Amino acid sequence: MVTSNKVLFHQEVTNDKTGIDSFIKALKKQTDCNFKNCLFCMGFTGIYNNILLNYLTAHKASIWTVGRCRRECPSDKR
User: Fold this and answer.
1) pLDDT classification of 78: cutoffs 50, 70, 90
2) pLDDT score at 18
3) How far is residue 50 CA from its own chain's centroid?
4) Rounded to an integer, what distance in angstroms lies between the CA atom of residue 60 and that of residue 54?
């Protein structure tokens, strides 16, 4: 969780319901964040973020996904 360019909360968890439950529980314990007053932002990682997206959608959370960024290579002539 970041606010005013300061990291307030960070936790690494497994990419499954148990890990996500653990993250949300710790987030609520350490901050005043809940599903109504937080925006959950994540990079789009294809199928890898589907579990979290489904979880957040089921809890009616606000979600923002950021698309993949493409780095230009000097040899790229397109």
Assistant:
1) very low
2) 95
3) 11
4) 10
Instruction: Kindly give, in sequence order, each residue whose CB lies less than 8 Å from that of residue 78, ignoring residues fewer than 6 positions away.
Output: none
Alpha helices per DSSP H over the chain: 17-30, 50-58
State phi, psi for 53 to the nearest 5 degrees: -60, -45
Q: How many residues does the chain have?
A: 78
Per-residue pLDDT tens for 23-54? 889 888 888 888 888 888 888 888 888 999 99
The bridge status of strand 62-66 relative to strand 39-43 is parallel
Q: Per-residue pLDDT tens for 59-77?
A: 999 999 887 655 555 554 4
Rounded to 5 degrees, φ, ψ at 62 are: -85, 130
Report the alpha-carbon angle 6-66-38, nearest 5. 50
Asked if 40 and 61 count as a contact pair (C-beta separation under 8 A), the reply is yes
